[in-house]
From TrEMBL:
InterPro entries: BEACH_dom (IPR000409), BEACH_dom_sf (IPR036372), BEACH_Domain (IPR050865), WD40/YVTN_repeat-like_dom_sf (IPR015943), WD40_repeat_dom_sf (IPR036322), WD40_rpt (IPR001680). Residues 1-286 form the BEACH domain. It comes from Stentor coeruleus. It comes from the Eukaryota. CDD domains: Beach. SMART domains: Beach, WD40. This is BEACH domain-containing protein. PANTHER family: BEACH DOMAIN-CONTAINING PROTEIN, BEIGE/BEACH-RELATED.
Length: 595
């Protein structure tokens, strides 16, 4: 268990999110997505399902993470305490006879998705449960947990990243309730506008909020820690039926006659199992409890740097960002790379930089560059149609060749992605390549969705490939010269005077009208960033809240680069000036930057 300490430290310092940390804890506690009887457990975090606007700055929006979801009120705590003393004579007293995680709970929440739909039918002898007991409303499910002592359900991870969980995408017939209401999609709160994408986004935002970050250690103590049982668990009203605990289950088997063994086994299998205990002492608190607010909410500092004249020949500048540095590539007769190291603050030391030549490269109008695995510069655009991989000393490390026509798209990261006018796409590693086919004309743009193992590309239509298998999984009949994606599975394409946003399943999410004079657009997290002649417009795609960076003078930008790990934006204009904007997340105050 010592390995978990490094993840706890990363969570404490904000290096990993609440969602990531909870998934890690579930894994260490032997919870698995492959076993519904020991499925990963996530907390209810919100209790406000009535308001039209979700206020994450109000503590009354959230449940109390110090107590189980079924012991949130004084009345429910008194009831739990009474039940504990009523069962003392049994030898193993407990607050609640049901459990917060079981096969039935997983199938209840995920009944609209396969394979859970089929498993649910098997559980109920060939059909779904009666309509009144099917998961149909977030508000109703929360209220049940507060008003029914036998309803002790926590949530499953999909509530924070999978919109399909709430939509009857397979058109199942769930029947009609006794009040005559047809059960179809899950009814979502007003603050989600009954939209599954918006709900998941805001629900995830609540999970990562300052309040939850400040209090999540309490819930970890309940589920994975020292409050699972014994006296600390008793004071937190967190003692469940003894058969759900690994140690007590084994002891009960030894004490009982053999005829009860099968019954005990079936009860543990179907009615809940407490996770393996990970922590024996109170879990540490998170260091920072400040909300990570959206990028558009505060734009505070500006740094402007003019390129050294010896490097300026009215040719483009390329800004690349890695974990530990950012790289400016200047073009003269040769291609020069300047590496700036990040300082401890959200900027860099201009006096501490390294300047190297990328050996063997010459500038062409089709020149493209990016960073691969933080250790290599990849580039294309040479007349030989190759992809060059240079190390940080500027020396050629490897040359990749496949395409027979000019490369139109090149990106790095964990993989190298290249697309070409020859209608092919290749996903490269150092030693392997995966060929993606399906386009019938030259490809204009291609991007990786690493979180979902997908590649999205466009020509006369949009294709979505699984880059692990090379298979096309979806086609969109939309034509665009540029496609962008974000980490939430959204696909952005420009169509005349609007930007269309699709989910990776092909479902249209939203259309945002932009001015015809707009030159370009970018995507940063949940924001669409639109270039106008005098400003950058940051449009939050869920609530359509807009903020702007006003430029000193009307200019045309040649490049915009977002540094995610430092919350910085680099802007490069056609006058060889690059500008750095710092996005300060220390305040939720919203205002517009002026110069």
């Amino acid at each position: 268990m010592r390995d978990i300490e490094k993840y706890t430290q990363k969570w404490k310092t904000g290096e990993i999110s609440n969602l990531e940390y909870l998934l890690i804890l579930n894994n260490y506690a032997s919870r698995s997505f492959h076993d519904t009887s020991q499925y990963p457990i996530f907390p209810w975090v919100i209790k406000d399902f009535n308001s039209s606007k979700l206020d994450l700055s109000n503590k009354d929006t959230f449940r109390d993470l110090k107590y189980p979801v079924c012991a949130q009120t004084l009345e429910s705590q008194r009831s739990a305490k009474k039940h504990f003393y009523l069962t003392v004579s049994d030898g193993y007293p407990y607050n609640f006879g049901s459990h917060y995680s079981s096969s039935g709970i997983v199938l209840y929440y995920a009944t609209r998705l396969e394979p859970f739909s089929s498993d649910n039918k098997k559980l109920h002898r060939g059909s779904f449960d009666v309509p009144d007991r099917i998961f149909c409303s977030m508000k109703k499910s929360w209220n049940n947990s507060q008003n029914n002592s036998s309803d002790t359900k926590e949530l499953i991870p999909e509530f924070f990243y999978l919109p399909e969980l709430f939509v009857n995408i397979n058109h199942e017939n769930f029947g009609t309730t006794q009040t005559g209401v047809e059960v179809n999609d899950v009814k979502l709160p007003k603050w989600a506008n009954n939209n599954a994408f918006t709900f998941v986004y805001k629900h995830r935002k609540a999970l990562e909020s300052g309040f939850v970050s400040k209090n999540l250690h309490n819930w970890i103590d309940l589920i994975f820690g020292y409050k699972q049982n014994s006296r600390p668990g008793e004071t937190a009203f967190n003692i469940f039926h003894p058969i759900t605990y690994e140690g007590k289950y084994s002891k009960m088997l030894l004490e009982a006659s053999e005829e009860y063994h099968k019954a005990y086994f079936c009860q543990a299998l179907h009615f809940g199992q407490t996770p393996r205990q990970i922590f024996k002492v109170p879990h540490p608190k998170r260091d920072s409890t400040t909300d990570k607010v959206q990028i558009y909410e505060r734009i505070t500092e500006q740094y402007r740097y003019e390129c050294s004249k010896k490097f300026v020949y009215h040719k483009p500048i390329f800004i690349l960002n890695s974990q530990n540095s950012f790289i400016v590539i200047f073009v003269q007769e040769k291609i020069i790379m300047t590496i700036y190291k990040w300082s401890n603050t959200n900027t860099y030391d201009t006096s501490n930089c390294k300047e190297v030549e990328l050996v063997g490269l010459f500038y062409t109008e089709n020149f493209k560059a990016d960073i691969y695995q933080d250790d290599f510069i990849i580039s294309s655009g040479q007349n030989d149609l190759c992809i060059y991989m240079h190390n940080m000393s500027g020396k050629i490390y490897k040359v990749l060749h496949f395409h027979t026509m000019p490369i139109t798209s090149l990106s790095g990261g964990s993989y190298v992605l290249s697309a070409s006018l020859d209608s092919t796409i290749v996903v490269w590693t150092e030693n392997t390549k995966t060929l993606l086919l399906g386009h019938t004309s030259g490809i204009t743009s291609a991007v990786l969705m690493n979180e979902f193992c997908l590649v999205v590309s466009c020509s006369d239509f949009i294709l979505i490939h699984d880059y692990r298998t090379g298979n096309v999984i979806r086609k969109l009949d939309e034509k665009s010269s540029k496609v962008l994606v974000n980490e939430y599975g959204m696909i952005f394409i420009r169509c005349e005077d609007e930007v269309k946003i699709f989910y990776m399943t092909g479902q249209i999410f939203k259309k945002i009208v932009v001015k015809k004079i707009t030159k370009n657009f970018h995507v940063i997290n949940e924001c669409l960033v639109v270039e106008d002649s005098s400003c950058l417009r940051f449009i939050q795609i869920y609530d359509m809240v807009e903020s702007c960076i006003y430029l000193q003078e009307p200019i045309e930008l040649s490049q915009m680069c977002y540094c995610r790990n430092k919350d910085l934006i680099f802007l490069v204009n056609h006058n060889d000036m690059y500008t750095l904007y710092s996005l300060d997340v220390s305040s939720t105050e919203k205002f517009e930057l002026w110069h």
